[in-house]
Amino acid sequence: MVGVLALQGSFLEHLKMLRQIGVDVREVRLPEQLENLDGLIIPGGESTTIGKLAVDFGLLEPLREFGKERAIWGTCAGAILLSKDARRDQPLLELMDITVERNAFGRQIASFEIDLEIPALKEVSNEDAPFHGVFIRAPLIDSVSGKAKVLASLPDGRIVAARQGHLLATAFHPELTDDDRVHRYFINMVIEKLAS
Ligand code: GLN
Question: What is the pLDDT of residues 98-127, one digit of tens each?
């Protein structure tokens, strides 16, 4: 069973996509709801709000512990929460060796869509089609270090997806498309981690 952190943001869309690909799901609002989960998605929304609510609900430390043992995928605000540094004082899980820049695209192109090449998705599909990236006041991953690896970049080279073992961060929103490849890719990560 895979959980979706349901404090704020686009958690319903993730739940829907997971159900569509046949995954049992659970909404997570309390620490005990992390029990027996095989993986977790932290959705997009507002990272400061999600972080503060996670502190209020006593979830910050349990989420950190969970992320040491199980797969977590953060989309957009979720990617910010996974990072070790967002260059601002806000609660973070600090699980991934990535530095992010919040709201990196300024006001005029705060939201945009662009096709992305994500070679790693070949693992879940023979289709070579690009992935349609939906960016909404998105962060950029401005550096990866340690064991984190780049999975996708914009045509100008700026990083928008990274993976560190069983942790995945995307600056865009696959749950707002009809393309389930990133969700299936994450489920493979969940299974890999369980088997390790
Ligand atoms: N701008 C938000 C933040 O900084 C992220 C936006 C999103 O998740 N779509 O937290």
Answer: 999 999 998 767 899 999 999 999 999 988
The answer to whether the predicted template modeling score (pTM) of the entire model surpasses 0.90 is yes
Domain enclosing residue 125, as ranges = 2-195
Q: How many domains does the chain contain in total? A: 1
* pLDDT of res. 161: 98
Regarding beta strands 39-42 and 2-5, do their DSSP bridges make them parallel or antiparallel, or are they unpaired?
parallel
- Examine the residue annotation and report whether 113 is marked as an active-site residue of this protein: no
Separation of alpha carbons 56 and 36, rounded Å: 22
Task: Give the CATH number of the domain where residue 33 resides.
Answer: 3.40.50.880
Q: Specify whether 173 is catalytic.
A: yes
Give the active site residue among 13, 76, 101, 166. 76
- Residue 175 a catalytic site member: yes
Which residue puts its alpha carbon closest to atom 2 of ligand 1?
46
**Which residues, 6 or more positions from 138, have their beta carbon under 8 angstroms from its beta carbon?**
76, 103, 104, 105, 111, 160, 171, 172
